Amino acid sequence: MQGIIDSHAHVCGKVLFPRWDEVMERAEKAGLERIMIVCTGVEEAERAIEIAARDPMFDVACGFYPNDILKVTKTDWSRLESLVKEPQVKAVGEIGMDYFPYETTVPKELQREAFIRQMCLAAEIGKPVIIHMRLATEDTRAYMRTYLKTPGIMHCYSGGYEAMGDFLDMGMYLSFSGNITFELDDRSTQKAVREAPLNRILVETDAPSLTPAPVQGRDNEPCFVTYVLDHICRLRGMKREELIRAVGDNYRRLMGG
Ligand SMILES: [Zn+2]
């Protein structure tokens, strides 16, 4: 039987990395075959690359998250530019736009600049992108139209049904996470889950965030991606094995291997 792929997990971050062994034991028990380790900083990425070099279960993505941009130094940028060329790094991300009103919000202009710079970096090295888009569908889509040259993943897709077609046209895959299991989730995203073409769907946890509703209260981890799979199966009326197979094919088509 084919294994499950979590296309987005922050397992080398400060919450889950100290518990690596138990987290991975549960992941393997749950049937996970491959995990994309998404790293938001250069040290984290170096750690992930080392792990992925030893174990083919792991891929790495690294990039600067829109709300971290103020902390990113010139040295960080040049380290990122060389790290993304490592063979274990399969994608540049997560990058994008985030208009959620945090206490300290990074000005839109700075987010835009960093987003464009990283889309261009992905184009230069010919690797996919992983896009973070929160309450910023219009701008994200507009910048992608101009600067995106490689396919990629709309991570934790919540852009709704109407916008879905445009992202698909740009070669993007839609990755769904625990957010679709929340009762208050918007209907437009549920519709996107039901109507998205099967050959463009991925699943993810975004661990340790976005714990699916049935296990809420715990830190999220890759083994809980099964709740996302089951929820999609319920909404689309399909079998779990069929979805796991499609997700695996999609991930390999995009990331290789
Ligand atoms: Zn993430």
Quick take:
By secondary structure, the protein is of the alpha/beta class. The chain contains nine helices and eight strands. It has one domain: TIM Barrel (Alpha-Beta Barrel).
How is the topology of this model organized?
Layout: E1 4-9, H1 20-29, E2 32-39, H2 42-54, E3 58-62, H3 74-83, E4 89-98, H4 108-125, E5 129-134, H5 137-147, E6 152-154, H6 160-169, E7 172-176, H7 187-195, E8 201-203, H8 225-236, H9 240-255
Parallel strand pairs: 1-2, 2-3, 3-4, 4-5, 5-6, 6-7, 7-8
Helix pairs in contact: 6-7
Residues 8, 10, 38, 94, 206 line the site of zinc ion (ZN).
Overview of this protein structure:
With 257 residues, the protein is α/β, with parallel strands linked by helices. The protein contains 9 helices and 8 strands. The protein has a single domain (4-255), classed as TIM Barrel, CATH 3.20.20.140. The protein is 42% helix and 18% strand. Strand 7, helix 7 and strand 8 form a beta-alpha-beta unit. Helix 6 packs across helix 7 (187-195). It is globular, with a radius of gyration of 17 Å. Residues 8, 10, 38, 94, 206 line the site of zinc ion.
The beta-strand count equals 8
Number of domains: 1
User: Cofactors and ligands present?
Assistant: zinc ion
CATH domain fold name:
TIM Barrel
Tell me the fraction of residues in β-strands, as a range. Answer: 15-25%
Biggest sheet architecture = 8 strands, parallel
Q: Enumerate the strands of the largest sheet in spatial order, edge to edge or round the barrel.
A: 1-2-3-4-5-6-7-8
The CATH class is Alpha Beta
Please give the share of residues in helix. 40-55%
Please count the helical segments: 9
